[in-house]
Write a structure and sequence with these properties.
Mean pLDDT: 89
Order of helices and strands: HHHEEHEEHEHHHHEEHEEHE
Low-confidence stretches: 175-181
Structural class: alpha+beta
Strand order of the largest sheet: 2-4-3-10-7-9-8-5
Number of helices: 11
Number of strands: 10
Largest sheet: 8 strands, antiparallel, barrel
Amino acid sequence: MAYASADSVLSLLDQRLVAALQCDGRITAERAAHALGVAAATVRRRLHALTADGTVRVVISPVARPRNGGSAGALFLRIRVLRGKLDTIVAALAAREDIPFIDVSAAGDEIFAVARTEPGSRDPLVFRQLPSTQAVTSLESATVLHVFRLTSEWRHQVLTASERAALSPPEPSASGTSGPYGIDTDPLEQSLIDALTPDARLPAATVAARTGHPETTVRRRIAQLAAQARLITQVLIDPRKLGLPIEAKLLLHVAPDHLAAAGRAMADHPSVHGAFATSGPSNLHAAAYFPDLTALYGFLSRDLVGLGITQVETAIVSRAAKRAPR
């Protein structure tokens, strides 16, 4: 497995700015500078450098946390393929709009993917297309039953608690939101979200020019969306740039009476960027970043103790083939 070289890891200041963007993707340079104790001109310059070359992208996440953690309709797929056919299958999956997430394991013949689907449906990809592909040697699917943590909620641990509090927007009130996932939008709001989706840091003036709405209206409605937690931003960055070159998929067997507590423990762990209760024997799926294999071993041997976990299967990711926002 390739490890991040020393010169590919961002400076501590840049990592702290990434963490600031995780708190608030549209944070101003002035507000970030005040919270981090850095000159505003320095923050402005570094943010521009990080975003201009694509090292960091701030986008609108299409997936908000469902109310009470319920599933929005997704399958975890574990696909084993013939050696020599891996790249062909990965490319075919990556071309599909209903597959937002593809990882290749270090085993070299295994693919982990997420498929959007209608809950309880006979998804044609799972029931017909993949099983009929000769290059696929086995297929396992698990339905997401409950969301404990989404990738968009993960935070890089380089800020103090007080810094994170200063950088995060106020907690939204329950008023003004409705619908099964707490998100309802009118056509004007949807046009703003669509404009911001590929670049959540676009200035209001640019959004106004692209949508044809008055700039004052755009500013007011973006502020309203953000205040009601209806504008969920996500920072896209290669975790190796943050000094986290090891990513592990964890398939956990948990006793039913421990499942909720184990899921919450996974969601609260600083290394875990995704945690979901699922159907199947591995009823808790998690994904986590680590600085090295020693940290991964410590997580497995220490942090999972006492959670009612009866079996753990660990797969190390060698390549992220597709990562749409989540």
